[in-house]
């Protein structure tokens, strides 16, 4: 569904990604874990068109989208819930969600039943339902994170990129975010998840990749990565069980 092949990306002359390859099959959740500065967010930005890759390819549902503008990649079916939320603070919750469906209104993506999907998004995120008429800027950080995720789902995308959905959230909201990711997975939503909480990410994912200094150092089924001594030592708090 989403295939990254030998991707190189840089900021100016500083190369951050040194030829990474990964695959996100349809209906699966794949997680990319790694320490700060490993290149996780850069990977997401290079996939979604926020930065242009130097070389390599990004293929979405069989279509080469390498280096296209972000809005064209979104039309092709890639939804990006970026690090740091980025909601439209002066618009209502409902209007933020409808903006997520914008390519469906313009005919760039199959329209489907937008009002039904809006209802479904609000059911999936009950906190948003209670606040659907509030301005997004008045929501708590956790609620804004849920809004960014729900807005991504409103595209009716082929693949959702979730970049650090739990960043800065209280533990109770982190649990809520992962419950929602599990529900989306149960509905067959294909996701690439970048997450600082490696244990939680591996619990919800089917497959994982470990990124170190802009290179994939290890990959495999999430279950086997959870039990890998090197992964446990580096990302799962030593030998503690989770």
Automatic annotation (TrEMBL):
<protein>
    <submittedName>
        <fullName>Amino acid/amide ABC transporter ATP-binding protein 2, HAAT family</fullName>
    </submittedName>
</protein>
<dbReference type="InterPro" id="IPR003439">
    <property type="entry name" value="ABC_transporter-like_ATP-bd"/>
</dbReference>
<keyword id="KW-1003">Cell membrane</keyword>
<dbReference type="InterPro" id="IPR003593">
    <property type="entry name" value="AAA+_ATPase"/>
</dbReference>
<feature type="domain" description="ABC transporter">
    <location>
        <begin position="2"/>
        <end position="238"/>
    </location>
</feature>
<comment type="similarity">
    <text>Belongs to the ABC transporter superfamily.</text>
</comment>
<dbReference type="GO" id="GO:0005524">
    <property type="term" value="F:ATP binding"/>
</dbReference>
<dbReference type="InterPro" id="IPR030660">
    <property type="entry name" value="ABC_branched_ATPase_LivF/BraG"/>
</dbReference>
<keyword id="KW-0067">ATP-binding</keyword>
<dbReference type="InterPro" id="IPR052156">
    <property type="entry name" value="BCAA_Transport_ATP-bd_LivF"/>
</dbReference>
<dbReference type="InterPro" id="IPR027417">
    <property type="entry name" value="P-loop_NTPase"/>
</dbReference>
<keyword id="KW-0029">Amino-acid transport</keyword>
<dbReference type="InterPro" id="IPR017871">
    <property type="entry name" value="ABC_transporter-like_CS"/>
</dbReference>
<dbReference type="Pfam" id="PF00005">
    <property type="entry name" value="ABC_tran"/>
</dbReference>
<keyword id="KW-0547">Nucleotide-binding</keyword>
<keyword id="KW-0472">Membrane</keyword>
<keyword id="KW-0813">Transport</keyword>
